[in-house]
Protein 1
Amino acid sequence: MVAAVNGQELKIIKVQGEFPWHRHEAADELFLVWKGNFRVEFRDQIVNLGPGELIVIPAGVEHRTAADDEAEILCFEPAGVRNTGNVDDAQFTAPNNVRI
Amino acid sequence: MVAAVNGQELKIIKVQGEFPWHRHEAADELFLVWKGNFRVEFRDQIVNLGPGELIVIPAGVEHRTAADDEAEILCFEPAGVRNTGNVDDAQFTAPNNVRI
C-alpha cells in the first residue's frame, strides 16, 4: 500500500504467473497497468492489458489475474480488502496495512 | 473521469499553467503523475513531482496545482467532488460526470 484516501487504498503489485481464482463480495477493484503486460481472466473471457490500460472488476465477479512476464500494476480498492477475496490461500493471501 | 469504483472516481487531467487556490472540505485527493512534471503548492511549501510520484492532499488543506509544461496526471477522489473545491471559477471549474 502506498497511499490511503477516503477509506480507499492505492497499492502497487508486482505480478508474474497466475493468481488464484477469487471474488471480492463487497468491493469493486480497479487495476491500472504501470509496466508490462497483464491479463484479467473471467470465467467467460480474458482481458489483456498493456501500460496505461485499466479495468474495473465489479464486486462479486469471480476473476484471476495473470502475467507471463513480470508486470507492475496499480490497484485501487477499499482499505482492508483481502487480496485473495473469498479465498484463503497459503501462498498468495497477503497481509493488509503494509505501507511502503 | 475514466473509471468509477466504490463511490470514488479515477480522472485523467492534463495540466499546464497555474490552477486557482482552493480546498476540498470533505475529500482527500490523490494525484499521481503519469507524464511530465507537476507541482502542488501549499501556503507554506511547494512539492515537485515527476512521473510515478504521487501526493495525497488531505481534506481541508488549501492548495493549488501547477505545471510549466503540459503534464498528464491521474486523480483519485470521491465521485462528485468539484475540481475547484470551495471556489467557483468561471475559467477552471469543470463539470462532473463527464466520462471518457
Protein 2
Amino acid sequence: MNPTQTTRKISPTGAQLFTEEITLEGHIIDSWALPKVFDAVMDLGGSFELLDIRVGRRKDEPSFARLKISAENEPQLDRIMTTLQDYGAVLVSQHDVRTEPAPANGVLPDDFYSTTHMPTQVRLGGKWVEVQNTEMDLIITVDQEQSAARMVPMAAVSKGDAVVVGYNGIRVIPPQRSRQHEIFSFMASDVSSERPKRRVIEELAREMRQTRERGGKILLVAGPAIVHSGAGPCLARMIRAGFVQVLFGGNAIATHDVESVLLGTSLGVTLRSGQSVEGGHRHHMFAINAIRKAGSLRQAVESGLLREGIMFECIKNNVDVVLSGSVRDDGPIPDVAQDMAEAQRRMREAVKGVDMALMIATMLHSIATGNMLPSSVKVVAVDINPAVVTKLADRGTFQALGLVTDAELFMRELADALGV
Amino acid sequence: MNPTQTTRKISPTGAQLFTEEITLEGHIIDSWALPKVFDAVMDLGGSFELLDIRVGRRKDEPSFARLKISAENEPQLDRIMTTLQDYGAVLVSQHDVRTEPAPANGVLPDDFYSTTHMPTQVRLGGKWVEVQNTEMDLIITVDQEQSAARMVPMAAVSKGDAVVVGYNGIRVIPPQRSRQHEIFSFMASDVSSERPKRRVIEELAREMRQTRERGGKILLVAGPAIVHSGAGPCLARMIRAGFVQVLFGGNAIATHDVESVLLGTSLGVTLRSGQSVEGGHRHHMFAINAIRKAGSLRQAVESGLLREGIMFECIKNNVDVVLSGSVRDDGPIPDVAQDMAEAQRRMREAVKGVDMALMIATMLHSIATGNMLPSSVKVVAVDINPAVVTKLADRGTFQALGLVTDAELFMRELADALGV
Amino acid sequence: MNPTQTTRKISPTGAQLFTEEITLEGHIIDSWALPKVFDAVMDLGGSFELLDIRVGRRKDEPSFARLKISAENEPQLDRIMTTLQDYGAVLVSQHDVRTEPAPANGVLPDDFYSTTHMPTQVRLGGKWVEVQNTEMDLIITVDQEQSAARMVPMAAVSKGDAVVVGYNGIRVIPPQRSRQHEIFSFMASDVSSERPKRRVIEELAREMRQTRERGGKILLVAGPAIVHSGAGPCLARMIRAGFVQVLFGGNAIATHDVESVLLGTSLGVTLRSGQSVEGGHRHHMFAINAIRKAGSLRQAVESGLLREGIMFECIKNNVDVVLSGSVRDDGPIPDVAQDMAEAQRRMREAVKGVDMALMIATMLHSIATGNMLPSSVKVVAVDINPAVVTKLADRGTFQALGLVTDAELFMRELADALGV
Amino acid sequence: MNPTQTTRKISPTGAQLFTEEITLEGHIIDSWALPKVFDAVMDLGGSFELLDIRVGRRKDEPSFARLKISAENEPQLDRIMTTLQDYGAVLVSQHDVRTEPAPANGVLPDDFYSTTHMPTQVRLGGKWVEVQNTEMDLIITVDQEQSAARMVPMAAVSKGDAVVVGYNGIRVIPPQRSRQHEIFSFMASDVSSERPKRRVIEELAREMRQTRERGGKILLVAGPAIVHSGAGPCLARMIRAGFVQVLFGGNAIATHDVESVLLGTSLGVTLRSGQSVEGGHRHHMFAINAIRKAGSLRQAVESGLLREGIMFECIKNNVDVVLSGSVRDDGPIPDVAQDMAEAQRRMREAVKGVDMALMIATMLHSIATGNMLPSSVKVVAVDINPAVVTKLADRGTFQALGLVTDAELFMRELADALGV
C-alpha cells in the first residue's frame, strides 16, 4: 500500500499529514453523497476541509463540492480514498491508474483494488476508459496495449497480469437517485411484511411487460419452495409467456419440478391436497434417477418423458438455465454443474445483459447471483424470512425491492397480474 | 390434595403404594391415547399394570384397556390421575365429584380441578352431568340442588361456591380422531411455509360456505396488518357477504380501518402505492379523534362519517364486535373495552356457539381467544411468523390448521375463493 | 387547517403559491437534517429554494441554511411545515403558538399538533417556553396565565383546554449526533444476530454501573421468557444489586416468577432440567391462586410465602413495579392493573426521570413503554425475533441499541458483566 | 414394481386383494410403532387385520403384534410394505432380498430400495447380513459372492451392480426409545427459544467430556456466524482441548477466521467493538488472497502467517477438516473442495465413526451432514432461526437436540461449561 503521489505536509501538532483533494458533483446532498463522505472520513479517523461548495438553489440543479482530505499516514489515506471513491469522489490530482503484476496464477498483489457493483472507469494514458464486466468484489486487470480494462475474479488472474492497485486513476459512478416515486426506491430498511404488496406486484408486472416488449432480459433465481408450495405451474406459464430469459437454481428446484410432473408430489407431499404421502420421501430419488436414465433434462423433454413443468418450458422456450450444485444435493440431475468454478463461470456468462432479476425463496443462489449483478440491474428479492430479504435488498443502491411474503402466493399474484 | 378413596397396598419393596384402576375405550391405539397414558404414567414416576386389553381387529372396531396405576404417594397419584383424565381415562371406582367451598371471592381451594377445552362431565348424585361452558384453565363450580355444573374463571368465583377438587367423578371426552383426510387434520408440527396453500384455502372457503349456509357462526380475530397490507377491502367484502358473525380485535385494527377510510393511509403509509406519507404518523391520531368526536363507531356510521370499511360493514351487518384494549393503545376509540375483565367477559359471551375461528396476524388477541374456545371449534391460525402459528395451532386436538403465510395475500386468495 | 400567517404569491404558472421561510442550524449536513428536509419537501409535493447556506469548514464547525418552502395550497404547506419541524427547522416569521379550545372531554380540535419524543418549545407572549412531559403522539395544552405548556394524552384533555394547533411558534430540538463511537450509535438497520455481542454487553454493563453510581434510574421492561428460560435468578440478582429502579411487565412475568419460586417450574416446565412436567399446565393457575389468597404480591412477601425471585427482590428493594393487564391474562394476580387507562397512567408516572430502558423479550410492553420515553432516554431492545428488535430500535434517534439474541443467555452474560 | 411373492385373494366385494403378514416386536406401543403402522396403512389406502397381539403387562416387558396387511394392487402393497419396514415391521414370509442390475453407470433400476438412516439388514442365502455404511437416501448394492451388502450413493453405482429392489428380505432396526430423561430426548416439536438452555448446555458439555475420555469422535459443523459474532476464540479453545475431531464448513468460515486473525475483523466488522470498518468489505478478499499466496491453510500455518484461530488449531491438533465450496464463494481458499462430488466423498469418509455432531449456525452444511449421519449419532442443532432448528432436529429419532439460540452466546456458554 504505497501510493506515491500523496501530498505530505506538516500538521499543526508537528505531525506529518498526508492529504488529497477530491471533488463531488451532482445531487450530492439530495442523494446523501456529501454527508456519507463526511461520515466516512471521520469514521476512518481522518479529517476534511471543505474548500468549496456550491449547492443547487432548486431541486433540479446539481451541486458541487471540493474537499481536502487529511490522514496521519499513507495506509489510512489509502483506506479513506478507496472508500470515498465508492461514493463518487474524484481525485483532483489526475494520474493514470497504477498496476502491479500478479505474482502467481490466482494470486494478487497485496494492494489490489477491489471492485464495487457500480460502473467504473480507469485512467489509461491520460484518458478515462470504461471497465468491462461490472461486478462486486472482483479485481481490475489492464491491457495497456489495447487501452482496455476489465473486472475479473481473483481465480481467473494469471501470473503477470497487470492488476490495478491503490486508488489513483479510478472513478466510480454511483447511481443517481431517482426523484420520481417507483417501486424500486424501496430500500432495505423498508422491508416489512405489513406493507401493501398487491400494488407493488402490479407495478412489477408492468415493469416486466415493458422489459419483455423492448426485448430486455429477465433473470429468475428460483428456490425449490416455488414447487413445494404448488406455484410451479404459475412459473411455467410465466416462462411460456416470455417473462423469463434466464433461470438460475439448484438441483432441488429441477428435481422437485420433475417429481411434481412425474408423480404429482414434491418431497413426497401431494401438491393438490398438501397431504404427505407415506413413503413419498423416495419420490425425489425416483425423479433424479428418471432424468439420469434419460441422460439429461433436454433428453427427457425430447423423449417425451417430461411434457410440462418449469424445466420443460425452459427447454422449449430457449431459456438460459444454469443449475448449480451444492454439497447437500442428492443425485444430482446430470444438468447440474458440480464444480463451483464452472457454475460461477456459466452464471457470469448468463447474467450479461440482464435488466431485471427476481430472486424467489432461495438465499444461496440469490446471494451468489446478487454478487454478480451490476448496480444497474433492478433486483426484486422475495422471501418469507425478513432476514433473507434484508440481506438481498440491502445493496446500497436505489434499485432493489424487498418483499417479505409467501413465495407461493406471490407467484400466483404475479402470474395473475401478468395475465398468464 | 387429599383424595380419600385411594386404595393403599404394600409394594414388593415394603413401601406403601397408592393405586387406582382406570379404563380407556374407543380408538385408543389409533388416536394414541394408550401410548400417551403409558408415557404420562412413566414421566410422572408412577407405574402401571395392563389388566386387560382388547384391540379392535379392524380399523373400524374400537379397543378397550383396563390398567392399574400405582404411585408412591397420594399427591403423585393425584397428578397422574388428573393427567390421565385429559386422555379420556375413566376411574373404575365410581364416586361422586368432590367439592370444597371457595375460601374468599376470586380465591380457590388449593386442590381445585383445572379444566381442559374438551367436553367434560361430573358425577353428581350417581349421575353423569354435562359441565356447561367448555373452556381451558377455568374451574368447575357445582350447584348440587340443580344437579348442574359449569366452568367459570377464577375471578368469577364467590366465597362459598362449591368448587370441584381432586379427580374423582370427572370424565373428559377427547375428540375422536377423524380418519378422512381434511384440512383441519394438519397438526402443529406440519406448520411450514413451503406447503401448498391454494388448495387449503379453497377447502377452507368451502367449509366457510357450508357454515354460512347452515346458519353457523364464524369468528374472525383480526390483526391490524390486514389493514396495513391493503387487504382491508377483502375483509369488508367477506363481512358484507355474511362470512363473519363475530369479530375480535383491538384498538389498532379499528383505528387503521378508520384511517384508511378517511385518509387513504394506514399508519401513514398510502395503501394504494405503499409509499410513506411524510408526516403521516399523525394520521392515526386524527382517525381516533374523529371517532371520539363522533361519539362511537356506530355513531360515525350513522352520521355518515364512515361510509365503508371493516367497521362500517360490521355495524351494517350486525356482526358482534369486541374490541379489547391494550396498554400500548393511543386514544383509544370509545368502543374499545379498556378494562380487561370486561373485555374477557364480552369475548366469552360472543364466542358462544362459534363453529369456526380464523385468527389472522395477531398473537395477543388470538391467544386470548384460543384459550376461550372449546375443542369442538375449528381453528385456523395464519401468520407470517412460524413461531406464532405453532403456538396457536398446537392445541392438542385435530381441529386446528396452521398456515405460515402473508396475511394480505391470504385474505386476497380467501376472498377470491369465497367469490366476494 | 388554516394558518393565517402564510405568505401568498403568484407562481410562474399563474397559480397562487403559499410559502414559508425556515432556518436550520447545527450539524445539519453531518446529521443528515438538510438532506432529510430536501427529501421531505419533495416527497410532500412542495418545492424549495436555498436562500443561504454556510457549511462548516471543519467537522467541529456548525452549518447554517435558510430555505424558502413553497406549496400549492395551505394544507400542503401545513403538512410540509409540521414535518420539517421534526428535523429541527425553525420558522423565520416569528409568531406565538396558536391554540384552540378542545370541543369536548377527550376530543381535540381538528388541526391539533401531534408531538414527537424530542424536547419541544412553544412561543408564548413572545418567549420560548419548554413543553413539559416529552412523549410521542401526545398533544400540547397551554396555560397562558402560567406561561406554561405540557404534553398530555388525548384522553386527558378536558373541554375548553387550550390545545396547540398548526405549526407556528413550535420548535423541536433533535438530538445532536454523537461523533464518538458508542454502543448506542448502532441504528436499527444494524440489527443482526451475527454481530459480536459480548463486547456490547460489557459496555452496556459499564453504562449501567455509571448510571447506578450517579443515582440515575434504570427501567427494565421484562417479558415472561426471562423466567421460562431460567434466567429469573439473574434478574433477581441484578435487582438486589441496585441495577433496576423501575420494572414494567404483565401478569405473565409475575405469575411465572411466583410459579418458579413456589413450584420450581414455569408454565409446567421444570426450570432445572427443561423437562415438561405432565399436568404442569395447572401450575400457573396454582401460583395465581396462591397470590390471590395472600391478597397481593407484597402481602405474599410479608407473610413469608414468597422468599425469593424477581417480585420478591422488587418489593424488598423498593423497585417501582407496574404490572399491566392484557386480554389474554388468566387470573390475574391482584397487583395487575386491569384498566388500561390506569395502567398507562401508572407507567407515565414511573418513567419520569428514567435514564436508560432495557426491553427484554416482550413486544407488547416494550412498544407501550417506547411510546412514552423521550428521545434522551437510552433504549436497549433485546429479542430473538429480528422484526421485534427492528420495531423497537427504530426510533429515529441515535440512542437505541438493538440486539437480536437469546434473552436467557443475554441475561446471564449481563449479570456476569455486572458482577452480580 | 413387481414383487412376486405376494399372496392374492378375493376380497368380499369380489376384488382381488394383495396381502402380506408382518410382525412387530419390542416397545411397539410405548415407542408408538404400532399406532404408526396403523396410521400408515390407512393413509396409504390399505387395510389391516390384527391377527395376534401380546402387550407387555409392565413397562419393562416387550410387546408383540402380528398383522395381515391388504391392498388393492401390487404397487400399493409395495408402498405400504416399504413404509412399514421403516417402523421395524418384519415380513412373516421369509425370502431373500431381490436385486436387479443397474442399467448404466449412476442409473438405478426403477424399483430400487431407498435407505433410511437406521441400521439395516438384508437376507442373503437365508441369512440376515448387516448392510454397511448407514446413510439416508442411498441405495443398497449386494455382493452375492461375499455375502455382503452396502449403502452407496446413486452416482457411485456402476452398470451391472446388483441393486436391491422391492421390500423382501429387508429388515430395519429403529432405535429403541430411551425411558430415562436425557437431553437428546427432546424432539423437534419441543424446539423453542423459551426453554432453559443453561442446564442443557451443561449436560451437553458432560456428554462431550465423556465422549472425549472414551476416545469418541465429535463432529462440529460450523457456520461463519461463529466468527462474525466474535465466538471464534471459544471454538479455537475447544479444538485445542480436544473437543473436536472432525470439522465441516465452507469457504466462509475459513475466510472469516483468517480475516479475524490477520486483520481483527470479520466481513469488515471489528470483532472487539462490533463497529463497521469503512472500506472493510475488502478485508475478506485480502484474507483469501493471503492464503492463496501462501499456497494453503497448512502452508500458512507452517510459514508462520497464521498463528492462532480455528484453522490454526485444527491443523495443529490434527482435526479432520472438510471445507466444501458453494456457488456464492469468493476466491476460494485453496483448501476448499470446489467439486461437490469430491466434497461429499470427503465428508462421507470423515463422518465414519463419529459419535456426536454439533451443527452451529449453518443450514447448508448441516443439512448436507445430517443426511450422511446414521441414526445412532447424537445430533445437536443450534440456530437463531427456529425453522432451521426444526428442519435439522426433526429426524424422526430420539437422538436429536434442537436449540433456538444465539450461536455466539451458545459457544461462550459451552466453552465455559467445558472449562476451556
